[in-house]
Amino acid sequence: MCIEILRHKKKVLLLLLLTVAGSIIFYLYTLRLERDNASATSTSTTSRLEREISDLQALFESKVVPQLGDLGRPARRNWTAGERQAMAQSMRGVGFNSWLSQRISSERSLYDMRHRSCKKLEYSLEKLPSVSVVITYHDEEASVLLRTLSSLRNRTPILLLREIILVDDGSTNVDPKLSDFLQIKFLNMVKHHRLDTQVGLMKARVTGAQLALADVLVFLDSHVEVTQGWLEPLIAPILQNNRTCTTPIIDTIDYDNFAYRRGKPSRGFFNWEFNYIQLPLLKEEAVALPAPHKNPIMNGGLFAIGRQWFFDLGGYDKGLKIWGAEQFELSLKIWLCGGSILEVPCSRVGHLYRDPNFHIHYTHQNKESEKKVISRNYRRVAEVWLDDYKDKLFEKMPHLTVIQVGSLTEEKALKKRLHCKPFKWFLDQLGKDFLNLYPVVEPVDFAFGVLQSLASPKLCLDRSEGKPGQPKLSECPDDHTFPESELKWTLTNHRELRSGPVCLEKRNQQGDIYVFQCHGQMGNQFWSLNTTSQQVVHGQMGSSRRCLEIQPDAKGVTTRKCDSNNAKQRWKFGYKNNHRLQHFWDNVKTS
Ligand code: UDP
Ligand code: MN
């Protein structure tokens, strides 16, 4: 019996052993199968993802020409005729060379043009507040937007950049792939928020600000490039006083070749037609450069402000629509209600200005005309913040008095609640030099009427365009003092040659003359009258003066080196105020 069992036991054991070994082999085999399967699927997902990423990259970045526009240099190559044509066409569409923009890397380098003492400033990053950058855009060109975002990522200390809130304000050219690309390129740094209908930049910015998590907000346009060290000096003053708002120096990105050009420190203001203007620094401010100085009115698109202070001020007036006057409203509110604005010369941000002859229409989806929208914005700001000085504005822009302004209850209540000061305080504190240039009671003009050529006495200067953007010559009218509007010119108190809304300006070295909206800033629109030689002279500084000269064959005018023997440089005004002309050069710098 025992032997029987033993014999059987051997068999059983052998069987058992075989089963166990078989199971192990089977187990190992299935394990391998699973692993192989798993790795096969994971390589397919990775490669799909990689393909998608490279597809997106190809879509947005494949046209980039290495080194083009690096260091912020003008982006130049030997372009073919076809390429130049493509550039010109893109320029006509958006007012800047978007064809070229697509060929300049979004990661391009920029020359560090800060004042040398700015480079030495040291900040302890732990002590500075982090910021939420808020950018809103409506139909922005993708390559321009990408360059804005890349420059932010590349030149902002990561510790200070909490997030970039990117608000798409109802763009009509939406490319869903752009959102995907932003996600892979900027990961969590960019928070993309889409508004399905356009609400205008004021409301879109407030929406962005409401989403912000950081204590300091930095608002930027969607077509900028920030430079080395831009953020630290911009936010340091806010740490010292949470009611201080700061603005960087705004450099220029050329609309034609994307060159990055130095902007000058200045004090922003507006004139009595609500045009944004730039005044020179006060003497003591110029001496103290690059220390921050007071900036009466911000340019609009680029500024840093404490989130709490921004919302204490009610953000932007909710009645302001689409675009226009919001920088006047916020600036006046900041100053009059207990805060201040400083321009910080050590902080530089480049802004892409469009071709001045291109006009962008933001209100095309809107039922109201653009003029109506902007006029209402103007009137709202004037009614709430300018007190009696609003009449000065209405005198220049009488159409504002008939526009429906909507309810101002909320704004007036805010003004009362925050004990905001009157506009006169603002003028007294910040606008002494402004009042000299733009007096409330304006002195009479130096001369007006026709501008008749003495070389060809039948011909008078006509502001209507001959060649694009340039004035022409027309037959002189009978009445030289009060001619029809196209032939009426005024040598104004601003030392400009104005006809209606436009002024005569010299744009280039060749001395070509154009008509353009008056900017009241002298510069390329500065003109004087030499009563002895009867010359009409362009240029404020003695060394750069040139004289207006008739080109009877071309039926136009140009400027050339002044020559009192040249009859083609002699002109006659319909009326001259000789007494006023004796004082023409009072308080005007000539060298
Ligand atoms: N913008 C917007 N919604 C609008 C109009 C403008 O978000 O309805 C954006 C625009 O894309 C830009 C910023 O607001 O990023 C400022 O506008 P723009 O650059 O035209 O003003 P400018 O620099 O000419 O004063
Ligand atoms: Mn802009």
Describe this structure in words.
This protein starts with a helix and ends in a 9-residue tail after the last helix. Helices cover 34% and strands 22% of the residues. The chain has three domains: 101-352, Alpha-Beta Complex (Spore Coat Polysaccharide Biosynthesis Protein SpsA, Chain A), CATH 3.90.550; 368-430, ppGaNTase-T1 linker domain-like (Helicase, Ruva Protein, domain 3), CATH 1.10.8; 447-581, Trefoil (Acidic Fibroblast Growth Factor, subunit A) (Trefoil), CATH 2.80.10.50. It is globular, with a radius of gyration of 33 Å. 37% of the residues are buried. It is of the alpha+beta class and 591 residues long. Uridine-5'-diphosphate binds at residues 136-138, 140, 169, 198, 200-201, 204, 221-222, 300-301, 322-323, 360, 362. Pathway: Protein modification; protein glycosylation.
Distance between the termini: 131 Å
C-alpha-based Rg, rounded? 33 Å
Shape: globular
Number of distinct helices: 17
Q: Which strand order spans the largest sheet, edge to edge or round the barrel?
A: 19-18-17-16-13-24
The whole-number mean of residue pLDDT values reads 92
Q: Largest sheet at a glance?
A: 6 strands, antiparallel
Give the CATH H-level superfamily of the largest domain: Spore Coat Polysaccharide Biosynthesis Protein SpsA, Chain A
Structural class: alpha+beta
Keywords: Disulfide bond, Glycoprotein, Glycosyltransferase, Golgi apparatus, Lectin, Manganese, Membrane, Signal-anchor, Transferase, Transmembrane, Transmembrane helix
Pathway: Protein modification; protein glycosylation
InterPro entries: Galactosyl_T_C, GalNAc-T, Glyco_trans_2-like, Nucleotide-diphossugar_trans, Ricin_B-like_lectins, Ricin_B_lectin
Cofactor: Mn(2+)
